[in-house]
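Can't paste images in this forum, so I'm doing it all in text. The chain is below; anyone willing to post the predicted structure tokens underneath?
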Amino acid sequence: MPAKLYRVDLTASEQTELERLRRKGTVSAGKMKRAQILLKAAEGWRDEDIMLALSTSRARVERTRRRFVEGDLQRALNEDERPDNQARWSMRLLADKLVELGVVDSISHEAVRQTLKKMRSNPGK
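Text version of the structure:
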């Protein structure tokens, strides 16, 4: 079995911070999950075992490991900023972006919705 590309080695202060977050219980669910992933990864758990124990995806485990190794603890725990502080793309934002990128000259948000529906796409996920 190949060695892990992104190995999580926590310092004592990082370990303390993650334990504090885990006990605190008032952080977002995503941040809590990422903290648990890092703690288990530092204990030597395999990705498959972390996935099963925390009911999460392989991509999330790998992404959390990579963000910790390439960045730091805060980067691994927190999500990146979203464009214009939007949580999700709205039909109007998608329509505006298509025009801005020059994909179309003009398009209504309803035409975007109908196209996405035909393609069975869900922009909120």
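The mean pLDDT is 87. The longest helix spans residues 29-42.
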